[in-house]
Amino acid sequence: MSTVTISAADVNKLRQQTGAGMMDCKKALTETNGDFEAAIDFLRKKGAKVAASRQDRESNEGVVIARTSADGKRGVIIELNCETDFVAKNAEFIAFANAIATVAVENNPASLEALNDLAVDGQKIGEAVIDKTGKIGEKIGVSKYEVIEGEKVIAYIHGNYRLGVLVGLSANVAGADDAGKDVAMQIAAMSPVAIDKDGVDATTIERELEIAKEQIRLEGKPEAMVEKIAAGKLNKFYKDSTLLNQEFVKDPSKSVAQFLNGVEKGLTVTAFKRVALGA
User: Global pTM?
Assistant: First the structure.
């Protein structure tokens, strides 16, 4: 048993350094005779042990946070996972996710690994995640980090933090915020694979063509017609699955491209990201 007197100020100092709970900090200082470095190790080992013991657990719950920079020219999405819906709805867990998103917006890290090396509340995010794991008792972690830049970036969160969307527009014009939100809602609902057909990767095109050809052959069409019909089906795929060519959900008489052109001639989407929880 420690003979060192642990003051409230010592406990508070350790709390500020680690973000751990008051009783956990008091126990750590008591167990380590008031040695702050050893107490920090004690707390991290506690968190690491819990994290290690839960590595085989699924953490498909959590929250998705989308956020833009103050100038509206950059946006980020982060996904912070946990194991249960109960924890995902916890205000402290959501606040932690928002704090990570803020760090991402302000520092613009190049990767998820770089994000985990940045500090949140005086502690590296990767280490804070381990400590939160120990405190919460569930496996948690940042699984996704996406970023886009543009002349005007709009962020949208759908379904109680279960889906986040970023949209980059080609210009910051009157009505851009509302138009961007409408397009973000379109992306959330329709999950396009690319902005336009030029953005569809070759593998996807080849797969769609092969599926179309097989369907046509099963329908008994002559082989000479297969390529032509398949090309038509591919065009239908572009219309249904690429953002600018999709029917605008709020006005199906227009495509998304036509809707944006109506807001401001030449206005278009330059980038987008869509992150769905657990996907």
Answer: 0.78
